[in-house]
Each structure stands twice: as structure tokens, then as C-alpha cells.
Amino acid sequence: QVQLVESGGGLVQAGDSLRLSCAASGSTSLTYRMGWFRQAPGKEREFVAAIIWSGGITDYADSVKGRFTISRDNAKKTVYLQMNSLKPEDTAIYYCAGGMYAARSYSYWGQGTQVTVSS
Fold first, then answer.
1. Which residues on neighbouring strands pair with residue 34, listed in sequence order?
2. 118 exposure class (CB count in 10 Å sphere: 0-12, 13-18, 19+)
3. Distances from the Cα of 12 to the Cα of 5, 75, 97, 107, angstroms
4. Across-strand partners of 118?
5. Which of 9, 70, 102, 103 is the most buried (most CB within 10 A)?
6. Cβ–Cβ < 8 Å for 87, 107
7. How many angstroms separate the Cα of 118 from the Cα of each of 11, 57, 95?
8. Tens of pLDDT along 47-84?
9. If you write DSSP's letter for every residue of 16-66 in order, what string do you get?
10. Is 98 helix (H, G, I), strand (E, B) or coil?
């Protein structure tokens, strides 16, 4: 099993920055890629960004390209989401997820961290 713990959420104003962290533990070798997702009130969960542990290839949702940056520290088994130029519409619970190699879906999920952006 893989355990994922997010941290770094909070209340900020529009235009501010936040950095989320996701610490992975347990059988982390099971994970091939790590992703960030978010879910706003009354909306479905949506993809934000993803990164491959090996090689660091990244992918982003169009809504966050140029503002958010996903990165990883393999030694610490931690994934980060640097969020700049935050907008009120970025308000959501942000979840970290781990996906296994060749799997289309993510198998492991954290408990989420709240990000609130005020206008």
C-alpha cells in the first residue's frame, strides 16, 4: 500500500502563491506517476497536473498552464504543486494521487487539503 499526505493548503488572496506538498510512504515503488486533482464545491473532481517519478515528464490542465508547476523530490518521495497567480476559481480541495505503471487511473489518494482564494 501507498500512503499519501498532502499539506500546504490555506486561505490566500487572488494573485498570491501557495505550494502544496504530497509526502508518499509505504510501497512507493508501486507508483509510476503522481498527480494533483481538485474538487470545488458542487463540481466533479478534475485533473490539475501530473509528473512521472523517473524523468520528471509533466502534464497540466489547460486552466493552470503557466501558473502552476508540479515537481518532485525522488529522495524525499515528495511531490509539490507550486501555484502562482491564484484565482478565486482555483478554490477547491486539492488531492494528491499515485498511479501505477500502465494503469489509466490512479490507485492511491491522499485525504486532500483545502485551498481557498478570496477575491
1. 51, 98
2. exposed
3. 21, 30, 24, 31
4. 13
5. 70
6. no
7. 7, 32, 20
8. 999 999 998 899 999 999 999 999 999 999 999 999 99
9. --EEEEEEEEESGGG-SEEEEEEE-TTS--EEEEEEETTT--EEE-TTTTT
10. strand
| Residue the block writes with cell 498511479 | 99
pLDDT in tens, 10-50: 999 999 999 999 999 998 888 899 999 999 999 999 999 99
> pLDDT digits over 98-109, tens only?
999 888 899 999
CA count, 13 A, side-chain hemisphere, 69: 9
CA dist 78 and 73 (Å) reads: 5
Within 8 A by CB and 6+ apart from 70, the residues are: 34, 36, 49, 50, 51, 58, 60, 79, 80, 81, 82
Residue count (the chain)? 119
